[in-house]
Amino acid sequence: MEQEKKKCMICGKVMPPIKGGICSPCQERVRREAMGEQASVRTQAEKELKKHGVTPDQGKERK
């Protein structure tokens, strides 16, 4: 019995056994997109704080 080839859930390419159903290139693309979204949310939050007169500390490490 031959092992069934699985398809990537995002691009649909037939891949050898893949972790989580998503191929590596698609995982990287999703990760970069998520990090970009996270950066834009942070920028937007800082703009809103500045509108209200609060200046966030740029040199202070965030937790």
Strand content: 5-15%
The largest pleated sheet is described as:
2 strands, antiparallel
Q: Give the SSE string.
A: EEH
Integer-rounded radius of gyration = 20 Å
- Counting DSSP H or I runs of 4 or more residues, the number of helices is 1
Unreliably modeled segments: none
Name the shape in a single word: rod-shaped
Work out the number of β strands: 2
What does this structure look like?
The protein has 63 residues and is mainly α. It has one helix spanning 24-51; strands at residues 6-7, 14-15. Strands 1-2 form a two-stranded antiparallel sheet. Strand 1 and strand 2 form a beta hairpin. The model has no long low-confidence stretch (mean pLDDT 79).
Write the layout of secondary structure elements.
Layout: E1 6-7, E2 14-15, H1 24-51
Antiparallel strand pairs: 1-2
List the defining traits of the structure above:
1 helix, single chain, rod-shaped, mainly alpha, 63 residues, 2 strands, two-stranded antiparallel sheet
Give a short overview.
The chain is mostly helical and 63 residues long. The chain is built from one helix and two strands. The protein has one helix at residues 24-51, and strands at 6-7, 14-15.
